[in-house]
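Components:
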Amino acid sequence: MSGEEEKPGFTRRDLVRGAMAGVVAAGVGGKTSPGPGRSLGPQAVPIELDVNGKLHALTVEPRVVLADALRERLGLTGTKVVCDRGACGACTVLVDGESVCSCLLLAAEVGGKKITTIEGLAADGRLAPIQEAFVKADALQCGFCTSGMVMSCKALLDRNPRPSREEIRHAVSGNLCRCGTYPHVLDAVERAAGLRPAASGNRKPETERTAILDPRFSRLVSDDRVDGATAEALEAEDA
Amino acid sequence: MKEKLRLGFNGKFEEKEVEIAGNDPAPWDPSRKFSILGTRVARLDGSAKTTGLARYAIDVRLPGMLYGKILRCPHAAAVVRSLDLSPARRMPGVKAALAIAKPGEAVRFAGQEIAAVAADSPERAQDAIAAIRVAYEPRPFVVDMEGAKKPGAPLVFEQRAVKRSAGDPYAAELEPPASGSGNVRGPRASSKGDVEEGFRRSDAIVEGTYTTQVQTHTALETHGLVAAWEGDELTVWASTQGIFSVRDELAQTLEIPASKVRVITEYMGGGFGAKFGARTEGVTAAKLAKEAGAPVKLFLDRKEEHLATGNRPSAVQWLKASATKDGKLSALHLVVHGTGGTNGGTGTSGPLKNIYACDNVKTEEFDVFTNAGPSAAMRAPGHPQGAFALEATMDELAGRLGMDPLEFRMKNDPSEVRREEFRIGAERIGWATRDARRQTKDPAILRGIGMGAAVWYNTGGTGPKATVSIHRDGSAEVVHGLQDLGTGSRTMVGIVAAEELSLPLERVAVRIGDTRMPYGPASGGSTTTPSSAPVIRAAAYQAARRVAELLAKEWRIDPQSVAFSEGVFSERGGAARSLPWKDACAKLPAEGISATGERAENHADAWKRFTAGAQFAEVEVDTETGLVRVKRIVAVHDCGLVVNALTAESQVQGGVIQGISYALYENRILDRATGRMVNPNVDQYKIVGSRDVPEIEVIFVPVWDGVNNTHSVGIGEPSTVPTAAAIANAVSHAIGARIRSLPITPESVLEALDAKRSGGARA
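Structure:
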């Protein structure tokens, strides 16, 4: 059999590159960006990104997506890339307050828009309430989906400060987690919204609670649904 | 030194004489009042992970760093005829290129590594691999297991396989199928008693064939590393479950001293069993970095991750079982064929051999090779699939005997711990009323409740070392070469040290994730905590003893007369001088003190058992659409003594959630015509999301086993063993028909309902 030459298949980036190279740049903002009616690339172009309130002047090829610009050019590696096609939510950032997948946006598209990444939530060295709630509820394991989860939950709480459990489920339904943190993510958002107490804190050691398998204690670990009185008691312990 | 220990569980303790190593503290007594161990402790790296500041290996950026990319074979089977890197080398920004496959070599699955480049941007690296010219001679291939078993099927190992690095999961080459047996290797057989005799003496026999799919690990951080040379020394930042195994594999493959390789894993984005070595991609990154004279980051993309980094093998299990009318199992006979692609590891007999008591057991396990990506250990290898077949069989046998499935299991389960777990779980899920609750308000929707059992084995072992330093201000620092996969190991280390030293956790600094630290265990087999916790405790104990020795000198008494308990050093007996920790530490020299502990042997004479678990699932099945919704899971587990109740709960929830995903959604699909995976990303390879996860109730049964000084055992794997089994049994309970394949899809539910209506397949 004779040999045959092979090239790897088309990637989404190839498509993006093709589109950007030949197509008129419509939504490009920022003072260093070309005006309407001009095409971009394939060579690198200057852009300006407004990230977490700071302006960054960059020169990037038009095919570079926002996630990669943040991670590889600005060193904001809190934003993670997992599927690289908008299916997992790990790269979620806020653009003008909307949660979006930064792997699906070209960096050159978002010049002039306000971008908030996970690094931009904590202010003055203090965790934002949603971050603190994630820590206390242990809404993270390996942590690789956590940035995206937190950003989706932040966007939810910004538009709906007291969401129901179903609304939270819906809000993070685009964020995949392989470790299985979903139950604790729901708990964390409820906590951040003031709807439940923390799951962590120095309560009685598990060993003491379970040493006798008293039915009263058989729910010891999981407090998914804490009734009012217990919730208050736990809050008091947390405080 | 022999010590009398009280060991057991559930308030029932027996006294046992256990040999304790000289400088190891004795296991805690059940009367111990813990200050922090077993409480719900927020993990130490929570802030780092929620602010995006935690630096994973894939986040590492070094000055002048290049990006590596691997070219992979598009054919399921081929011979490489020629390979030309020169067009790639001429591409802009390309600094290094190397061949991984050599002309004449066979390629065995679509996605196998062919060549690699390093360039100054990811985009340019991508461009460059597209420029590499490869001529392949495609060969006949087979990607489905049944096809691979047929006489005349294309032989996956027709030619010698090439193992590029010790960590590559191509185990098959080491022991290919015997000549003449095609793609089938085996059986690995085990036997006790006489199954035929057991079947003859029985009152009920059931038999069924259970099919399970290939599952991919899908850790969110892909495989890879960043490699940087400084002279002849190599430093890598790796996403790994074993920093020391990565070090050793790099040293061996690159033929450099292990002492000149440093591996760092500060944070890592999940492994689930597939990340133990440097593997081809890691070795390739190191070689590219050497050639380019610059650091190289090489991480796989999501598609590569699905194709080439491991998976849980499929299984087709034929299981025949029998019982006598008094409800005792009399025989179990299992024959398994499974495919791990170009690797083996397809056994599923663990649950069958190790959960229920049966005198007559026979198992025969066959690996079937296919032209598909190699398997790798995946969270409780063989067990979710084995439990699925076994637990369905238990339900069916109970049905034949007219016995309640729970009662039937209680009669056959020799584990005292698990029987207690069955009782607790049954109460929580409402087992007694399960038949009465089958109907819901909606006549189309039926409710079902099912159960399954878990078993696990490993109790950790010797090897790990840790250093605990005490500073003059009374704070402590623990250094231990362990990686935290996300399980909370870092926090576990801090908790154990804080408990032993009676310190608040804030006063303990934990340093992990570097091969320059004292040796830590690889994180696999649910052995991390039982391997590490005892050595952390031992080192902390010894450090405190050294403070006690200094005090003894000052007090002019024998060091043995100084006790340390609840944060106070005190003189035993007479004079009864005492000094709080802080004041005692203030007397330390400027350099403080430190102690390096070693993990003592497991205590052979302790209260030994297999780790037990029981899970119960409640589902609702829409009989019109076939959709299954899991409404609730109750998971009751033996975790020895829980170190951190919060992260342990997280881990069990995670095991359950992966089990739900395995039961209902995940399925790697290979195209028989092209041999390629058709769903190599998470938009098509479905893992469970937030809307399909039910409320999960986690309950721990503490067991004081005395096997090590902290009574700790691992929980990562047992927590995922019985979930799919329990869900499948719940579905059968709901619809009154048995589905014998995973994932349970709407289609398979509707088929089962149809078959039931037409008179077959009654459970």
